[in-house]
Write a structure and sequence with these properties.
The chain has six helices and no strands. With about 150 residues, the chain is mainly α. It has one domain. α1 (about 1-25) runs antiparallel to α2, α1 (about 1-25) packs antiparallel against α6 and α4 (about 75-100) runs antiparallel to α6 (about 115-145). It starts with a helix and ends in a 5-residue tail after the last helix. About 25% of the residues are buried.
Length: about 150
């Protein structure tokens, strides 16, 4: 039962990351309103929470549930999945920092200002994160079915 619960939590957290990214990507505009900027900041916070849950639950699954650490550490798709997770995490730093820097502008209830270049970069980063997340899920499916041995 424990294995099923942790598997469920892992999936929920991954879907949470996906949902947060999709909402951020769909909400981001070149001239965000105060409401849109608030939603972006909230989604980004949830993105971080879900990423933390994925890490903790994933760690527990590798070492205490499922197939055991030897299975995972010996599988190239596990390493690819972890590499993609790290890449996504590193990419997410830029939008997160930008959203945090909006705080002073939004303190008086004003919408933040965003340059065209900054908008394009954030949008491209969010899009790339979504693509890499799909690759990560593919690696997880291949790994779980024994590919890579």
């Amino acid at each position: 039962m424990g294995s099923a619960v942790f598997s469920f939590l892992h999936f929920v957290a991954v879907f949470g990351i996906l949902g947060a990214l999709v909402i951020e990507w769909a909400t981001l505009t070149e001239s965000p309103t105060y409401r849109e900027a608030t939603l972006l900041r909230v989604c980004d916070r949830w993105y971080g929470i879900f990423a933390g849950i994925v890490l903790v639950v994933g760690f527990l699954r590798v070492f205490y549930f499922e197939k055991g650490s030897a299975y995972y550490f010996g599988n190239p798709f596990f390493h690819a999945k972890m590499g993609l997770f790290i890449a996504i995490g590193l990419l997410s730093i830029y939008p997160t920092v930008r959203f945090i820097k909006w705080r002073p502008q939004m303190a008086d209830g004003k919408a933040p200002t965003l340059s065209s270049a900054e908008y394009r970069v954030i949008r491209a980063v969010l899009r790339l994160e979504l693509v890499l997340l799909l690759g990560m899920v593919l690696c997880a499916a291949l790994m779980a079915r024994g590919f890579g041995y």
